[in-house]
Structure formats: structure tokens, C-alpha cells
Write a structure and sequence with these properties.
With 335 residues, the protein is an alpha/beta fold. The protein has a single domain, classed as Rossmann fold. It has ten helices and 13 strands. The strands form three sheets. It has an eight-stranded mixed beta sheet, with helices on both faces. Helix 2 runs parallel beside helix 9 and helix 9 crosses helix 10. The chain is globular and about 45 Å long. The two termini are 23 Å apart. The N terminus is likely disordered. InterPro entries: Metacaspase (IPR050452), Pept_C14_caspase (IPR011600). This is Peptidase C14 caspase domain-containing protein. One of its GO terms (biological process) is proteolysis.
Length: 335
Amino acid sequence: MPREHHEHSLNHARAYAGGHKKALLIGINYTGTAHALKGCIADVQHMKEFLVAHRGYHDTPESLVFMADDAPLEHHRPTHRNLVAAFQWLVVGNTEGDSLFLHYSGHGAQMAAKADTSRDRKQDCIVPLDYESTGCIEADFLHRALVHALPVGVKLTVVFDCCHSGTMLELPYTYRPTDEQPMAPKKKPSDLLADVESILHRGFTPIDIHVLLEDVAGLSALFPHRDDVVANGGVDSLGYKHEHFAGDIDPTEKSVVVISGCEDDQTSADTVVQGYGNTGALSYAIVSKLKADGGRVNYESLLAHARQFMIDNKLTQIPQLSCGMEVDPTGSFEF
């Protein structure tokens, strides 16, 4: 590792050590719907406990917002409108040196591009509680709301524990620690049965297989597969792949780090861990690693741990690390 990258990483960490901190935690179980999940609210509750106990976040309305299906306050329920307002709350009013944290645990999907844009492909999105009436929140909007609107010098750390989340914020760098999984144009499934098996395996077990097959046209429209990211060049000396996205993407490098549960064309598991309960696989892997190491872990080891957890539990999802600027992968995972 070049020394200048190590020094940059240390200076980068120090710059955010004394700033103000804000966290937005979103867990959606979709209780009572055909696509109900079980571990999402618990995911963000565990993260909240870690942030308050070990990372200096304060459980006050000014510093931390917890959104869930059953939130006592109406504006803390993760509807489309409330999520948009919460993203604005997180990003605005910050100054250089501040640290922001976002954890989303829920469904991720893919949707067709809007007719009034130049895009003719699908794009990833997150699924609000009231998606049936309001639709999803697409990656382009998330980029504008969370990356473009982020002041320079403010750090944003994001965990996306959801399907199709590999490049959810459309950041310019995706870290590739080995050549075993080089970045390539995203694949589409070869047949319907593979899709059905994947969906059932990742938390949609309440849906009977026969019903799912009968309604496959509707499900395909809601959860199609992505083919948005086009490879351009190789992996650089730090292991980062430079991404190029269609659409109006902010070219300014921002201090944004995202750990996501899977690649864009994969799904993420809602699972059960003995002695822990229902949880998202990525959320458990991250929180358990942070607790085991006393909160001191670097990007590379955290990503490696999350990927190994999937392998050990026979899950095919591959957690991803993407950034708004090149970050030394051996640097401390601070937020």
C-alpha cells in the first residue's frame, strides 16, 4: 500500500472525529402484506444500539430518526413521502467535519426508467411501505437527494440491506478486492425458474409457488433485473472499479461509503440466526463484526467478513463496497 494513501486515510478519519453526528435508520417489515419480511426492524434496532453505545450518536430527535412500520409517530413511518423528507433531514444543515449514517433494511427492487428520460434500461430502487399506491424510490433520486445534496466535507456512511443494492447510490467507485469477481455488464437470468427460486429463497416464502407462477407477469414488472452498469476499463491499484452510469450523475467526488447486501442482479436474504433471531444477512454480518472487534475494523476486513458469512451460510449474495471517492480499503471504517 502506498504511504500517501495511508496518510490520506488517517487524515480523512481525523477530519470527522470531532464533528456532529446524525443517523437515519429505516426498517420496513411490510407487515400484513404479501411481501412481508421479519428481520428488518430488528436490524436497525441493533444498529441503533451500537451507534449510541459505541459510536457517539445521541438518541435525540435532532440527532437520530428511527423509522419503522409501527413507529408511534406518523411521520416516522417509512412511507414514500416520509422517506423523502427524512433524506432531506439527514443531509441538510450539516457543516464540514460532520458525519451522517443511513441504514436501510427492507425490500429493494428494480423498475423501468421513466419515459421522459434518455434511459431505456431498468434502475434499482428501494420499496417504501406504501409502494402499492406511491411506487418505489429509484436510484437516480437517491443519488440526487443523498449524494448531490451532500455538502463537501461531510461524510455519509450507508448500509443497504436489500435486494439489487450493489450500486444503489450510483457512486463512481466499486471496490474489487480480488480478480475472482471482475466488474462486468450485469447479467439477466436465463430462465424464470431461477428467478422464482431466488425470490423464494430471499424472504418471499409467504407466497405460494403456484400463486407466484400465476402472477409472474406482475412480479416481473415489480422486480425485473438490472442491466444498467457498463464496465469501463480495469481495476485500479487500490482495487476500485470506476463505474459509469446513464443519467445526470454528480461528477463531484463526495465522502460517501456504501456497504450493500448484494450485487445489482442479486437478492439479499431475510434469515434467522440462532440466538439472535430474525435478521437481514448483511445487517447481522456487519453488526456482529463491529461488536466482535470492538468497533475497530477496516473496510477490507469488514467486506471480507460479510462475504465469508454468506458463503458459510450457503447464501449466494455478494456484499459490495462502493464509494464517492477513493478510500484506502485498509483504512478504519469510521462513521
